[in-house]
Amino acid sequence: MNHALKSELIKPSILYYGTPVVLLSTLNEDGTVNISPLSSSWALGDCIILGIGIGGKAFENIERHPECVINIPGPSLWENVEKLAPYTGKTNVPDYKRSIGYSYQKDKYGISELTPARSVTVKPTRIMECPIQVEAVVKHIRIPEHSPNFAIIETKAVHVHAHKEIIIEGNHIDPQKWSPLIYNFRHYFGLGKELGKSFRATT
Predict the structure, then answer these.
(1) pLDDT tens figures, 99-146
(2) How many beta carbons lie within 10 A of that of residue 97, not counting itself?
(3) Which residues pair with residue 156 across a beta bridge?
(4) Beta strands 47-53 and 41-44: pairing type?
(5) Beta strands of the chain (E only): which ranges?
């Protein structure tokens, strides 16, 4: 045991301890698309779990139309992501969001300077600039009793799109060429130098 290592109890206001950023495309009532930056997601097989605030437009849209595109930006898109950050697609901005600086913006593609691309199966559009884009259908929505301001959204991936330059051996993502944009305690990062690989790595 290394007795030089010491820790202290803390009460952080946030627990974004380093997670990939997702830009979630959902369908508005009039057929236009809303884009919401998310910092809570994980994948297992073809199941992708999303954490979404229930006061936002993304949750409202998913409840009405259970399809989405999970767009995964690389580090070069952090400024585009941040351009979206202070806006909501809800015309009546919730008081708690207004109090911390949010305002209404319908044209999320315009404000972020990103480009829509038609999806194969789902109605929400993909974001062309994101190196990985996952068309998905919503399978289950759960609101935790202990944290009723957030929803846990279970989705199933139905189509995965990737930029050609990050594809290797046909159906694999080349980890030497791909880096997700990481949200680390509200700061943006890319990945550093590779340290090694899992015994289960296929590339």
Answers:
(1) 989 999 999 999 999 999 999 999 999 999 999 999 999 999 999 999
(2) 18
(3) 47, 137
(4) antiparallel
(5) 17-20, 22-27, 33-38, 41-44, 47-53, 67-72, 87-88, 103-104, 116-117, 126-127, 132-142, 150-162, 167-168, 172-173, 182-184, 187-189
The helix or strand, by DSSP H or E, that contains position 85, with its residue range, turns out to be: none
pTM: 0.93
The closest alpha carbon to 37, from 78, 85, 75, 83, belongs to 85
Read off the tokens for 199. 């015994």
Q: Structure tokens of 94? A: 């919730």
Q: Which residues pair with 42 in a beta bridge?
A: 49
**CB under 8 Å to 28, separation ≥6 — which residues?**
34, 57, 61, 89, 106
Query: Taking all residues of the chain, what is their mean pLDDT, rounded to a whole number?
Result: 94
For residues 79 and 68, what is the distance between their CA atoms, to the nearest angstrom?
23
